[in-house]
Amino acid sequence: MADRLKQVVNHIFSSNMSSADPFEKKVNLGVGAYRDDNDKPWVLPVVRKAEQILLNTPSLDHEYLPITGLPEFTTAAAKLILGSDSNAIMEGRVTTVQTISGTGANHLGALFLERFYPWVGKKEIYLSDPTWANHQAIFKNVGITPINYPYYDPKTIGLDFNGFLNALKNAPNKSIFLIHACAHNPTGVDPSKEQWNAIADMMLEKGHYGFFDCAYQGFASGNLDNDAWAVREFVKRGVNMLVCQSFAKNAGLYGERVGALHVLSSSKEAADRVKSQLSVLQRSEISNPPTYGARIVNLILNDAELFEEWKRDIATMAGRIIDMRQQLYKVLTDELKTPGNWDHIVNQIGMFSFTGITPQQSQALVEKAHIYMTANGRISMTGLNGKNLRYFAGCLDKAVRGEL
Ligand SMILES: Cc1ncc(COP(=O)(O)O)c(C=O)c1O
């Protein structure tokens, strides 16, 4: 609890300090949303187009949506994450409910499992160590106790694959594991395809349940299908699971709260029962999900031209982040010859990077260089741009050498 509190305070503190700091060269690397090369929020051009279409459709009203959401949206959202050729979808084994973005999907999924999962022992969920800070609170809120499984190895600044696999092996049968589908937050460390396969083998052997959280589809590699690979593979192989999906990052619709929960069942009959249970839960929580964001995403997913444009927008965002990784790596290794190995900067994936620096070094960066980041050394790559990258690299170099 003390650690969690520290994390929260540190986060609030660093973002507040950043906005109050008049220093011209200050850099905010604590931000959890995409920024363009001018450090500004970016409304995707495809979203602007979809908004214009909505504005010019006078037949749209402001009635309630069905409890489970806008049907065309939920159908298209399921295909986006599970694949349009998904057998599970064709067999009617997927129940999709529109949620309040990814957070709402996590919450509804957690609530659903708390009520209906065939618990053997205690109500517990295994979370990666570390994970998105909100996971702990979301599960505790519904009476499920979070426990950690090893994920990040500070020695290699990479995946603690053996630790992860051993945790799967040693957990009681039918345990629930929360798994980041791609672009793990906060580490940026994802398993390789070979490692994913071994994880799936162990999940199947032990009868574990996969609680997949997919907040960054497209954002990791720049390609929506590549980033859904693990989810689709686990579904194909018959792992029992659900998937939380967010359109906050990949459509830049942070404040519109558009997302979905997909629960996989073994038969259409079971899926129908899940739908009625989820409807009852959703009714008492939010009555009906909001329309605006779902309408935008629905237009994009169901119009071939808009969909192609969206893919280009996603590639622009992911491409800029990958470019920042490569530039940072180059300046640190080729130019500054910063002590240590920096391969992880280019090997990690998605918005965040664990730099591997010590809490003292990150504190020095905040206090002496006006570079705001979390104490655990996590930086948001989207806070870097053509104008501040060299300043950041120079300060990081000095911090590592103990000269800041
Ligand atoms: C791993 C993970 N899951 C879920 C979310 C939820 O985001 P939202 O509720 O904005 O979709 C986030 C946001 O940062 C995240 O990083």
UniProtKB/TrEMBL annotation:
<dbReference type="GO" id="GO:0030170">
    <property type="term" value="F:pyridoxal phosphate binding"/>
</dbReference>
<dbReference type="InterPro" id="IPR015422">
    <property type="entry name" value="PyrdxlP-dep_Trfase_small"/>
</dbReference>
<comment type="subunit">
    <text>Homodimer.</text>
</comment>
<dbReference type="Pfam" id="PF00155">
    <property type="entry name" value="Aminotran_1_2"/>
</dbReference>
<dbReference type="InterPro" id="IPR004839">
    <property type="entry name" value="Aminotransferase_I/II_large"/>
</dbReference>
<dbReference type="GO" id="GO:0004069">
    <property type="term" value="F:L-aspartate:2-oxoglutarate aminotransferase activity"/>
</dbReference>
<dbReference type="GO" id="GO:0006532">
    <property type="term" value="P:aspartate biosynthetic process"/>
</dbReference>
<keyword id="KW-0808">Transferase</keyword>
<protein>
    <recommendedName>
        <fullName>Aspartate aminotransferase</fullName>
        <ecNumber>2.6.1.1</ecNumber>
    </recommendedName>
</protein>
<comment type="similarity">
    <text>Belongs to the class-I pyridoxal-phosphate-dependent aminotransferase family.</text>
</comment>
<feature type="domain" description="Aminotransferase class I/classII large">
    <location>
        <begin position="25"/>
        <end position="393"/>
    </location>
</feature>
<dbReference type="InterPro" id="IPR004838">
    <property type="entry name" value="NHTrfase_class1_PyrdxlP-BS"/>
</dbReference>
<keyword id="KW-0032">Aminotransferase</keyword>
<dbReference type="InterPro" id="IPR000796">
    <property type="entry name" value="Asp_trans"/>
</dbReference>
<dbReference type="InterPro" id="IPR015424">
    <property type="entry name" value="PyrdxlP-dep_Trfase"/>
</dbReference>
<keyword id="KW-0663">Pyridoxal phosphate</keyword>
<dbReference type="GO" id="GO:0005829">
    <property type="term" value="C:cytosol"/>
</dbReference>
<dbReference type="InterPro" id="IPR015421">
    <property type="entry name" value="PyrdxlP-dep_Trfase_major"/>
</dbReference>
